[in-house]
């Protein structure tokens, strides 16, 4: 089980396959177990999974974590692995980490694919989701959170068990701090400078984040971008509609590998 040291913390990661490196960035609490179905992309690409600090098999350390610190950990992992450019695939608030990375290190970013992504929390329903996560973790009820996330994100028993185990291993104070950081994080002001290709994926039933696609259209004016609406699913695109998600990511990655701009700049 490989580990590396970043900002004084021992962090767990996995690397499988060859080709364009794809960093999959999980939501709070779930760890890399969220991307159980994405490992099959290693047949064509270099799949890189990392448990964020205090998640899964990674050390918690001081039990606080911000979006910015998580992005720096990923940048350090890219250095350790000798990767010049990576495709960043963020799921839910993992997309905030992808955006932070892309804005701070555009020269290391091949592109970003965001599943249910948002540049900041601006709507009431999404704000409530973060508050619920903060309330549960403040109480230390990781068993409850494990049940909620595993049932909501997995159709297969094995995947449910993997997610539940990962959540239970995660540090409640650290996950609480990450929910808090995600709630207050905003990169909207930086979006006009974002130049790397951007793929936005939303579930057709994920009504409480549909608003955010318009923010990307409005502010990310330089970035070539496209939106994929995945039918028959809410927020859990990578976990409940993995075939559609993997196909979209693979197409995006192949286009990036070929050195072209995957789609036109949409303004």
Automatic annotation (TrEMBL):
UniProt xrefs under InterPro entries: AB_hydrolase_1, AB_hydrolase_fold, Carboxylesterase_BioH, Hydrolase_4
PANTHER family from the UniProt entry: HYDROLASE ALPHA/BETA FOLD FAMILY (PTHR43194), PEROXISOMAL MEMBRANE PROTEIN LPX1 (PTHR43194:SF2)
Gene3D superfamilies noted in UniProt: alpha/beta hydrolase
Domain of life assignment: Bacteria
Protein name: Pimeloyl-ACP methyl ester carboxylesterase
Domain Serine aminopeptidase S33: 42-237
